[in-house]
Amino acid sequence: MTPIRWFLSFLKKYRLRMIVGLILVAVTAVMQLINPRISGQIVDDVINGGHFERLTTLLIVMIAVTLVRSALRFVFLMCFEYSSQGTIYDMREEAYKKLMKEDFAFFNRNRTGDLMSRQTGDIDAVRHMVSHVIYFTFENVLIFLLALVMVFTVNVKLALCMLIVLPFSLAVTLSQGKNVRAAFAHIRDCFSSLNAFAQENIAGNRVVKAFAKEDYETEKFNKENDAYRDAQLGASHVWMKYIPMFEVLSQCLTVILIIMGGFMVIDGQVSLGDMVTVNGYLWMLNSPLRQAGWIINDIQRFAAAIEKIYAVYTTEPDIRQPEMPVHIKDRRLRGSVSFEHVDYFAHNDVILRDISFSVEPGQTVGIIGATGSGKSTLISLVCRFYDVSSGAVKVDGVDVRDLNLQMLRGNIGVAMQDVFLFSDTIEGNIAYGDPDCPFEEVEKAAKIANAHDFIMEMPEGYDTIVGERGVGLSGGQKQRIALARAILKDPSIVILDDTTSAIDMETESIIQHELKKVSAHRTVFIIAHRISSIMHADQILVLDNGRLIEQGTHDELLAKKGYYSTVFRHQYGEFDQFKAIRANKGKGEY
Fold first, then answer.
1. 564, pLDDT greater than 80
2. What does the pLDDT read at residue 549?
3. In this structure, which topology does domain 3-103+110-313 adopt according to CATH?
4. pTM, rounded to two decimals
């Protein structure tokens, strides 16, 4: 399917309204032929012929035609406006649904501001096409042809003389359309870049201010703004060459009428009334020629915009629903997870290599390793945010690629490393996975995440609006809300990606104690850099450069005196010293 056919598939829903609108456009175009003819009759019959009794009737007809034409014009304008709003509503909804189906890789490749420009500026170009350009093009072509026919009915020789400009007009139109399209495509690219830059800097305004880089970012913005301005001016220079040509061609019609019509009136070939009639049709011939350049601009602007929207819409995600998903009773997973010789590559780089392990339902797995060792990627494969390059990730013995995506992810609660909170109430953020749950469940999850106390200290408690991305909350507070959100979902598998990194160790020990109460029948993955976060786990995985280099319990890994043991000594000193600290804090709580 081409971009235009895709666009027409949305417009088809409103075809009846569009047809009615085009019929009314045709009616009003025909009605525009009446008044010039009446003007000619007034000159010939009333002024020159002396039939003054006909003047009142002719004037009433002219006024009535004008009023009816204005009323019909209002109706067809509403038809096209309604169709345009309906079309872009459906198109925007469909494009947004497609965005929601895209995978992580898609959003890694595309900037937020660029995607936003597709939903705003490009969509508006489509609205303008439906609400204005379609009827305006049809109206101008029809008026030009009808006026030309009427001139033929007045005098064939005069009409043929006026046809001389048509080949030149056609040549200029084709040339403009060819040259201006690339310019408008460049404008859309520059607009997307400008939009993306502005969105990124507004979202990162705290970093900008923290480094006092306002002037630096302003200078960068000016470059983007200059590029957009230059693209607009470049397009203007393209069509500025053609607008004067259309203007000259339209004025040629006036010159032809004055010269040829004047000689023909003097020679008696046409009457003065006929000359007035043709002059009335002259603007109907001039106006379409003047508007041709603008119409071509709008059409090419629309073509560039619809191609941008369609390019995003037709991008197929790498992660797709299986054609025949494995049926899971009650859509509830038990929570066993196994990795079988899993490799994962991204951009020709090895992220994970030959990873194999298994986890039984109800077990807690700690994952530790240096930054960039592949910890977050590993748990992303469980959620099927990415697909393995080789090997298999299985949940309850079934390859995740054979499970329904919504069912799989519906059974997994994730508190991600990059905490994102919506501009909503705290209750709304915690209950995001189950918006219809009772408030008691929200409160219970908040207490488990040790978030209840600080929430109640806020002005509106659970009804406090946290602001975009959790503005106004500390890092630890945002992490605890994200943890509560994952717990409330009541998943079979819980994934905590460095969820307690911004939380003090005393609060962390409280959270771990509460988590033990609710994780007895859940599989829990905990990614952490602190030993205290994972030392209680049933098994601990140690990753290094994408490889699983150590695996076992806390005591087993200490005995190996490898990477884990080294990290432990860096964090706690010698083992005897650690035992003393642990005894003071209370066994099982630290």
1. yes
2. 92
3. ABC transporter transmembrane region fold (1.20.1560)
4. 0.73
